[in-house]
Amino acid sequence: MPAIDYDAWARTYDDSRGASPSVLGPIAEELGPPAARSLLDIGGGTGNFAAPLAEAGFRVSLLDFSPEMVRRARAKFPGELFAVADAQCLPLPDAEFDCALSVNVLGHLPDWPQALSEARRVVREGPFVVKVSTRETVTANWIMNYFPQILDAAPLHHYQPAEVTVQALRAAGFSRITMRPIHYTDVIDGSFQALKHHPELFLEDDSLIMNTAVIKRVPERERTDAIAAIRRDYESGRLREIMAQFEPLVAKYGDGFVFTARP
Predict the structure, then answer these.
(1) DSSP conformation letters of 125-161
(2) What are the structural domains, with CATH classification, of the chain?
(3) Beta-strand pair 59-64/81-84
(4) What is the dihedral of CA 53, 56, 57, 60, to 10 degrees?
(5) How far apart are the first and last CA of the chain?
(6) DSSP assignment, residue 259?
(7) Which pTM does this prediction carry?
(8) Contact present, 176 and 197 (Cβ < 8 Å)
(9) Cis peptide leading into 127, omega within 30 of 0?
(10) pLDDT tens profile 130-165
(11) How far apart are the C-alpha atoms of 229 and 239, rounded to whole Å?
């Protein structure tokens, strides 16, 4: 499947991506009071989540693999540290931060369990808060009806059952782990999971649909055919029937999980 040029993506990322209250709210609750605590945003992209958390009172540092993502994040808030770095090998001392955050990052990492170990190494009392899409939440997405190849794509091997993520966090050295589902009530972050609640967006400009890593990775011909099929089924009314078949799974698993891990 096509690789993603993250520096190129950074130039259009904020056109339809932001800190969804549906995600930011649970993350802030799990992090707890800011109290001037140091917070590391691992794979923080253009700083959409880091900026409001810095405004709330955290002393935020942001790392991302893409220089262009980091450059754009730097313009959004006065962070403690901005650096281009690999989440799988953080260039930081042990126990450098009070807590850490990672939003929709694991799927971009070939060795995501190692990234969890690195997060454990650099945090003190925590928590480390991770937002991911699990196997359950992906299979609850009706878009999979049109893009079945996504689950079998090598770059997306991170779509593991929630319990596997819990086990990986334990293996990384965290001992107290909780998880909670999130449900999108907006599309401010333009994600694959948020899009499923607004099928009418598939009738609009393809650039909006393409502003998600999941669909970016689908080969162009397959992507074009799938989007055309969604549009046909939307017009005929068949899409509503397909969406209804997924509703019980959405109610059960939500649109993603927030994992909170402490030493």
Answers:
(1) S--EEEEE--HHHHHT-GGGGT-GGGGG-GGGTT---
(2) 6-262 (3.40.50.150)
(3) parallel
(4) 10
(5) 37
(6) E
(7) 0.93
(8) no
(9) yes
(10) 999 999 999 999 999 998 877 765 445 678 899 999
(11) 10
